[in-house]
Specification:
The complex is a heterodimer. Helix content of chain A is 42%, strand content 18%. Chain A has 17 helices and 23 strands. The relative contact order of chain B is 0.11. The chains are: A alpha/beta, B alpha/beta.
């Protein structure tokens, strides 16, 4: 049985059916004129072989082609792209079944940050009243390491609202190189969570080692096909409208192997896309359609997700403003576009502008988490623990996010209103009206234990004290202390024998000896 | 067997079942006698009122209290059990004097004139009954003169006044003044409660105590009761 996710009743739609169609038409126009620049020769050749208008741009230091994609190629690709994508998991009960026309939301972590945020609590004494003490969190940013990635995967395994895991930290240990980063990154994730693992690929020459590792964990090549417990994110089209050489090459190879892959585009309204909603939407949709088309030309029927990470520029420094309201609007529009194509959507929410957990991070992330979730993306890449755009990762924030996702998931549940329920409630009202106290309290008890009531906010302090962060920290320590569900010893042993480049310290069975 | 009835009373208090219609905690209990029916049966069987109270009601509420402390029970569960004890006490009340069992005390409760809100007052009533007090509930929107009349007639040890509105809380002060004018003030301990009032407000109008919530109200009454009995 796959994970249930949350099926959204009457998903939120910002744009009308006609506007969806208009965006689609504009994107098709953009794919023809101005078309895209392509810095990858294989992609240019593939498009050329299938009837796209491709011309090499002369006089450039870097080889570059101009590609104009006809509507027919896009239509064929949209037709052959699977409408249901399965993302497997080490524990098959954690697999995700995403249907493009079903607004069932799965909440997934992400993205990859360079900085890990440690936290400790210091006690401060009031000058005016020395008896009064408060605990204040002190945050210390540092470079992310592979041990952090293991801890993060473990905590996310234990958080029930997390449906899948995108690696959260860029591992920057001294013994991590371009050539061993991918295998260590995937192993650290797979060995510490039984949920689906998604990541980008650092080096194409590691793809086969990563796939081999996944096959060993899944129990063979065929098992991995049936239970694809890993998948990839690729941002092959750099905005505006440019196929990047290395990522496009990786994308082609991933598609050839038939593993699920996100075709992600991340334009910034104001700098790499128009500041107006219609403009960024027409462009991001064109960019994703171009990627999906390439994927289907490489391997017809290969599973792809419509990936959207649009963002508005900050007006003070032109960096990404993930906390802006428009960012949520663009994401909801993208969810609607993907649903129009019936291709499962990878959408973004919860990314915030602030650098530490606190009130601003809560306001920014909660706003987008609620609104984007309401629109019913299948794969909500909802930035568990992320801060400062996608630069900083905080485990403390992850625990805070879990609490508010419990609320959002509860809110998204279908209302339980039907004839039988209303008959029962009418009887209950009559019965209570016959009593002297006229209280319904006795009826709370079975409901309270049935899971029909939302849980209180878990980090509520006593009285006037705001103890949210301190209580969340306690919860984090509890989670970290829980046992880790590692890959079994025999499989681990094979992985370390057959996959080169793995750091010996990641072999937990060797450590125990 | 009479002992079995007391055990059943105990079990049904823990389950929070007042009558046979109540669900309780465990499934399949609807239709089986609840505390009200069992207490009637116990009296008819000749079981002493003291045994019903001590071994049936008080012992079961101790278990309920432990379950609450262990977070196995929540406030609605406590209330359900307290309501069951309250129902039992109501049935036992006419038998108390004959059996020589003294109730812990008597309290009159009322929501003051002009105020229709009575949920808080009702919860306090249920909990006080559950704690073994005789509770006379005058209802809501009660005229001050009717409260004075009831205190004169019932001679309670405690009077609980409730108000939800800032516009009606001042009636509590009027009530205390009216009791003073009727020379009844020193015969009754007055506890107030309700969203707009506070400990400070209670002191300012000459009340003896303030209950922040239902459970706190019971503990205030218990403390005042112990103080009074200590003086006796």
């Amino acid at each position: 049985m796959p994970r249930e996710g949350v099926l959204v009743n009457n998903p939120l739609e910002r744009i009308s059916g006609e506007q969806v169609r208009q965006i689609h038409d504009a994107s098709i126009e953009i794919l023809k004129d101005p078309g895209l620049l392509c810095f990858n020769k294989r992609a240019a050749d593939i498009f050329h072989q299938h009837g796209a208008e491709v011309s090499e741009i002369p006089g450039s230091d870097t080889p570059c082609w101009h590609i104009k994609i006809p509507e027919k190629l896009v239509a064929d690709a949209l037709d052959s792209a699977p409408k249901t994508v399965i993302l497997g998991a080490r524990n098959p009960d954690n697999s995700l079944v995403m249907k493009g026309d079903e607004p069932r939301v799965y909440f997934i972590t992400g993205s990859e940050t360079n900085t890990w945020l440690d936290v400790d609590f210091s006690t401060y004494v009031s000058k005016s009243d020395p008896k009064k003490e408060i605990k204040v969190p002190e945050f210390k940013p540092r470079r992310g390491m592979v041990a952090d990635l293991c801890a993060s995967a473990h905590v996310c395994e234990r958080l029930e609202t997390v449906d899948g895991y995108i690696r959260t930290v860029n591992i920057q240990d001294k013994d991590i190189t371009e050539d061993n980063k991918d295998v260590n990154k995937f192993f650290a994730c797979l060995n510490n969570t039984t949920k689906h693992v998604m990541s980008g690929l650092t080096s194409l020459n590691q793809l086969d080692n990563v796939v081999k590792m996944a096959e060993l964990v899944a129990g063979g090549k065929e098992n991995l096909k049936e239970n694809p417990l890993i998948s990839f994110i690729t941002c092959l089209v750099k905005s505006p409208l440019q196929f990047v050489d290395d990522t496009t090459e990786s994308f082609i190879e991933i598609c050839r192997r038939g593993l699920p892959v996100v075709v992600s585009s991340a334009p910034q309204a104001g700098t790499s896309a128009p500041i107006k909603e219609a403009g960024i939407m027409a462009q991001i949709n064109a960019e994703v359609l171009a990627g999906i088309t390439l994927g289907q030309l490489v391997n017809k029927g290969t599973p792809v997700l419509y990936g959207s990470v649009p963002v508005r520029a900050r007006m003070d420094n032109l960096s990404d403003s993930y906390g802006s309201v428009e960012t949520s609007q663009y994401n909801i529009d993208c969810v609607q576009m993907a649903r129009f194509y019936r291709i499962p959507n990878y959408s973004t929410s919860g990314v915030c502008d602030t650098k530490i957990p606190g009130q601003q991070s809560t306001v920014e992330r909660l706003f987008s988490d609620i609104t984007v979730a309401l629109s019913g993306p299948q794969y909500l890449h909802c930035a568990f623990g992320l801060l400062d755009g996608n630069s900083i990762f905080s485990l403390l924030q992850t625990v805070l996010d879990d609490a508010h996702f419990k609320m959002i998931k509860f809110f998204l549940k279908s209302p339980r209103i039907d004839g039988q329920e209303l008959t029962d409630m009418t009887k209950q009202i009559r019965d209570v009206m016959d009593t002297p106290q006229k209280m319904f309290i006795q009826y709370i008890r079975p409901v309270m234990r049935s899971g029909e009531l939302s849980a209180p906010y878990p980090f509520e302090g006593d009285g006037e004290d705001d103890s949210v962060l301190a209580l969340a920290y306690e919860r984090l320590q509890e989670l970290l202390a829980k046992p880790v569900e590692h890959i079994d010893q025999a499989t681990t042993s094979r992985i370390f024998q057959e996959i080169p480049g793995l750091l010996p310290r990641l072999n937990v069975y060797k450590q125990e000896k | 067997m009479p002992e079995d009835i007391v055990d059943l009373i105990k079990e049904n208090v823990i389950q929070g079942r007042v009558t046979s219609d109540d669900e309780g905690m465990d499934k399949g209990m609807v239709g089986q006698p609840g505390v009200s029916e069992l207490v009637e049966e116990a009296i008819a069987s000749g079981i002493s009122v003291a045994d019903i109270i001590n071994e049936g009601l008080t012992a079961s509420m101790e278990i309920v209290g432990q379950k609450f402390e262990n977070e196995e029970y929540y406030i609605p569960d406590m209330l359900a059990s307290a309501e069951a004890v309250g129902a039992a006490m109501e049935i036992l009340e006419p038998h108390l004097s004959k059996s020589g069992v003294k109730p812990k005390g008597k309290i009159i409760v009322a929501t003051v004139k002009g105020d229709l809100h009575d949920i808080g007052k009702n919860i306090v009533s249920v909990l006080l009954r559950g704690a073994g007090y005789i509770v006379k509930d005058l209802g809501h929107d009660v005229e001050t003169k009717d409260i004075v009349k009831a205190v004169k007639k019932e001679k309670p040890q405690f009077l609980g006044l409730s108000a939800l509105l800032t516009s009606t809380m001042t009636t509590m002060e009027d009530t205390i003044k009216a009791l003073t004018e009727s020379s009844l003030r020193d015969k009754v301990k007055i506890i107030i409660g309700g969203a707009p009032v506070s400990e400070e407000y209670a002191r300012s109008i000459g009340a003896d105590g303030y209950g922040a919530d239902g459970f706190h109200a019971v503990s205030v009454v218990e403390a005042l009761n112990a103080e009074m009995k200590g003086r006796d």
